[in-house]
């Protein structure tokens, strides 16, 4: 913000970076889960290994939690006074 960024730019940057990492992790985890379903089938109770509802609901739930987790530091970063931050550095 000391160099001219607006608070919404800070919010977009922090949340965008966090969600990008989340989407990469969710994609890798979903792919790994799809590839390893026959190995984990014995551990699943009441759910088929290729259950589409589970493969749809879990990534959405994880992305929602990650979004909420990114909003907390993003809001804190938006409220920082630039002069205090520069003086601290």
Can you give a write-up of this model?
The longest helix has 29 residues. Helix 1 runs antiparallel to helix 3. Helix content is 75%, strand content 0%. With 89 residues, the chain is mainly alpha-helical. The protein starts with 6 loop residues before the first helix and ends with a helix. It is rod-shaped. The relative contact order is 0.18. The mean pLDDT is 86. The chain has 4 helices and no strands.
Short précis:
This protein has 89 residues and is an all-alpha fold.
Q: Give the overall form.
A: rod-shaped
- Give the uncertain stretches in residue-range form: none
Helix count equals 4
**Main β sheet profile:** none
Query: What is the count of β-strands?
Result: 0
SSE topology sketch:
Elements: H1 7-35, H2 37-40, H3 52-78, H4 82-88
Which short descriptors sum up this protein?
0% strand; mainly alpha
